[in-house]
Amino acid sequence: MVFISDKIVKALVSLQEEGSIPFFTLPQIIITRPNDEKFGDYTSNIALVISRQADRSPKEIADFLKNKLEGDFAKVEVAGPGHLNFYLPSTYFQDVVESFDKDSFSEEDGETIMVEYSQPNTHKEFHIGHLRNVFIGSTLVNILRKTGKKVIAANYIGDTGTHIAKCLWGIQTFHREVDLDALENKAEFLGQVYTEATQKIEENPDYEEQFKALQNRFEAGEPDLVSLWKKTKEWSMEEFQSLYQELGVVFDEYFYESLEEEAGKKLLPELLEKGIVKESEGAIIADLEQYNLGILVLVRKDGSALYGLKDIPLAKKKFEEYQIDKSIYVVDIRQEFYFKQLFKILELYGFHKNMIHYGYEFVALKGGETMSSRKGNIIAARTLIKSVEEKVMEQFPDSPDIQAIALGAIRFAMLKHSAGSKIEFEIEESVRLDGSTGPYVQYAHARIASILDKAIEEGLAINESSVFGEELHQKEKELIREISKFPEILEEIANSGEVHKISHYSLKVAERFHSFYSQCKVIDRDNPLLSQQRLKIIRATQKVLAESLSLMGIAAPEKM
Q1: Is the pLDDT of residue 420 over 70?
Q2: Distance (Å, whole) CA 497 – CA 490
Q3: CB under 8 Å to 252, separation ≥6 — which residues?
Q4: Helix (H, G, I), strand (E, B), or coil: what is residue 470?
Q5: What's the CA angle centered on 316, arms 312 and 318, to 5 degrees?
Q6: Could you give all domains of the chain from N- to C-terminal order, each with its CATH number?
Q7: pLDDT at 502 over 70
Q8: C-alpha dihedral over 524, 527, 533, 537, to 10 degrees?
Q9: By C-alpha distance, which of 27, 324, 321 is closest to 151?
Q10: How far apart, in whole angstroms, are the C-alpha atoms of residue 523 and residue 535?
Q11: Which terminal CB of the chain, N or C, has fewer other CB atoms within 10 Å?
């Protein structure tokens, strides 16, 4: 907390001026929240940090500071060898509640960040693993923007490569008689054809030669194949756009592998000339062995380009054309080593920029095996959404918006896990009202909306000029303490990328609200001052819940 650190600095300067401690350059004052609230609202170890420079024991320094500071707080105590614990005054709690009626967040701070996420491959189905990527990426974008960053949300579409050629080969080999334009679910058809083609090629070596011949013709630009590619690619893009709209996700920029491949081929001679890459047995490779990063193949000996050749020019384009300060890649954890290789190649090229890879683990249904488009055992995103919607209809038959609760349940169930954790998605668990779920948080918001409506009916609409007239109940303090953490949590996530912390935080706020409501009567016609106080507290809580849910892309319903 800035105001506490400022007061400590002033107190230390005063101690130096009066000769209690010698003059020296003061370090940064670190203020944290204790794990247990019985040890105060905030704590600092500054007395231990400066003990040697001050030529005093930490306990002596802490006692000096306590005497200087306790008039600004409800209580200041010295704990252990010299920790300072701060208990905030009642006026602080009212200020917190009042602050949520204002925009208390910073304006743009000048930093521009591009967050690249989603990155689906055309000609494959959008599955639940893709959903996790979208939820992480879109939440990160929202939080970065909320904390004052200028953010460009980017999507990098995999519209070229071996999987495309396999799908085209499968269509021409096994589905030539199909009226493609008459298909109802074209994107699903493409995913099924890709799986079928992959399996047929694995089973029959003769098919491998046929497929390779088609791939060569496609890469050579054979008109019929290029036309089929463009038509089927558009089917995939239409499905992606439909899903993004349903999920409430908007991208500012789209990049395409097919275009970046062309840029990579133009850049290749320069990479060869600089010795960053070299020819090896007909292929083009980057030998990074001396950096313990192995060898990255950019172009196979058959001439086909791999990811690296496309990602190198795209990385340059992001910084040069969009004038960004930082580039974040949200890509699954299997690519961690690849990104180390990519960043090293760019560094050797002389491109020293702030690039970060945020990896995440796999998703499967409870008890299911690891998904693979090649095996054909993926769980399509739409299949999961439909299944959860059916459970929501059972759980909340009177809900005015089944889809909002279902999508909230899915988002929350994936976001509550740290990115490095594998997820076994449980449909039944995701929609429970008594668990660590999206509906639990949504219900807290809806319950507050109901209380506020009832207060108006009872003639107890909030008087904006009213002040806290009653001593705060312990549960009131606990709830206000929790909502006061909101800006700090967002800053922490913006710096670390750990978006799961916003779901954990919203759960804590919901839990604190329910605990408060079970012990504190809100609507009390016999005590209107107390009612005003508590109505203001729950309205601030509702705003924090609504904002937390919104940052996760989850609706904040007023009725469940």
Answers
A1: yes
A2: 10
A3: 152, 153, 154
A4: coil
A5: 115
A6: 2-88 (3.30.1360.70), 112-363 (3.40.50.620), 387-417+427-551 (1.10.730.10)
A7: yes
A8: -20
A9: 324
A10: 8
A11: N
Q: Is the pLDDT of residue 363 over 50?
A: yes
Is 560 in contact with 510 (CB distance < 8 Å)?
no
One-letter amino acid at 216 equals N
What is the pLDDT at residue 141?
98
Structure tokens at 447: 């319950």
Quick check: helix, strand or coil at residue 165?
Answer: helix
Secondary structure (DSSP) of 171-206: HHHH-TTS-GGG-SSHHHHHHHHHHHHHHHHHH-HH
d(CA 79, CA 512): 27
- The pTM of the full predicted model, rounded to 2 decimals, is 0.90
Query: How far is residue 529's CA from residue 462's CA, in Å, rounded to a whole number?
Result: 10
What is the DSSP secondary-structure string of 292-323? T--EEEEE-TTS-B-HHHHHHHHHHHHHHHH-
Residue 91 exposure: Cα atoms within 13 Å on the Cβ side: 3
Compute CA 198 distance to the chain's CA centroid, rounded to the nearest angstrom.
33
Q: What six digits make up the tokens of 458?
A: 């009872």
Query: Tell me: the pLDDT tens digits for 35-89?
Result: 887 888 899 999 999 999 999 999 999 999 999 998 889 899 999 999 999 998 8
Helix-, strand-, coil-residue percentages of the chain, each rounded to 5: 55, 10, 30
What mean pLDDT, rounded, does the chain reach? 92
